[in-house]
Amino acid sequence: SSGINAEYGGIRLTGPINVGALMQDVIMDPKHGYYPQAARIGHKGDFITAPELTPVFGEIIGAWSLLYWQQAKLPPNIHFMELGPGKGTLMRDVMDTVGIIGPAFFGKAPKLSASLIEISEQFIAEQERLLCGNIMKRVTPEQIFENANYLTRTGLHKARFKWYSMLEHVPTDRPALYLMNEFLDALPVNQFQKTEEKGWVEVMVDVERDCDKLFYTTYKTGRSIKIDQDKELAELPVGAQIEHSPAADEIVASVAQRIVQSGGAALIIDYGEDQVSTELTFRAFKDHQQVNPLEDLGLCDLTADVNFKNLKRAVAGIEGAKAHGPITQSNFLTLMGIGERFRQLYSKVPPEKQDSIIHAHNFLCSPEEMGDRFKVMCITRDSDPIPFCFESS
Q1: Which of 61, 112, 209, 300 has minimal Cβ neighbours within 10 Å of its Cβ?
Q2: pLDDT (tens digit per residue) in 190-214
Q3: Distance CA 2, CA 249 (A)
Q4: Closest Cα partner for 393 from 371, 372, 378, 383?
């Protein structure tokens, strides 16, 4: 049964809550939330991410990072910062790549370090095992939420790994490469619908009076009044529906601000569109199946498409920062030579493994799979060179 039955009592007590508040509680609640307690990634989990499919994805990100570091003429001390690192697979593959080919770029081995922003006890343990070889001592939820930097270890390629629960706890004392792969899609979204009589109304969640069953309803709220005042959205017809993630905009603006202050770049890789979307995309996954997001609270992965148009607007609001793209994941990986890399692998593996290499390539790059649905956006200082792969975006 769900660990968030308090949600029902809370709604009965104070009235309906918006979709964003429900997502925040269900995903992030330290005791019962999906990410702190139940999240499962991989073939046996609720969802699979590109790094879990093949190390080639992380190799490409590592190679791009080296190219950018060289392009921006930064010193050979490379600091990575990953938000929502999952099992640590992407960070491991990036570190391995940079550790192995870094000396060819700089004439010596680069000094590596990384900050990981994570609140899940289970993921912290998996990341520590993968990046540092073992687990020193399991971190408790109290330590995670009460300490700025709750864990520090030395690991792969002599890199210093530090774990934090929030981005604002990480010092801005050096250039960094910020990685957000399927991170923003897990942040809360608010939903709105345009009506004939009331203009924009907000989608809310209420509970049945005689049983613990949640249902959607709509109300005029302060947030929907704000949407009424948006000139661009005024053009949309009655019946249109939109989503907005203030949390995603805030994090991206904060990363842009940090880049302006200390240098570096950010790579955002996620599913979504670069336009005003008039469809609601909030949904839930359990065991790779789409399920009702209002049931099994805390036991499913809740997600919504990323609105890249809003993210670009958030970056434009930070003086000195520039957004590049988004371009499709297929375009990004192809420009970075993924086809050639898979061809090399294909020629080296035994015949029974060749199918899995074709599958991985198709899954990452084909328009029917992740290729077009996933986008890649980059943030740099506006005075820095245009990053590789984004020249024509």
Answers
A1: 209
A2: 999 999 999 999 999 998 877 778 8
A3: 30
A4: 378
Q: What is the share, in percent, of the chain residues with pLDDT greater than 70?
A: 92
Nearest to 214 by CA among 279, 291, 293, 299: 293
**Relative orientation angle of helices 6-14 and 19-28, to the nearest 10 degrees:** 150
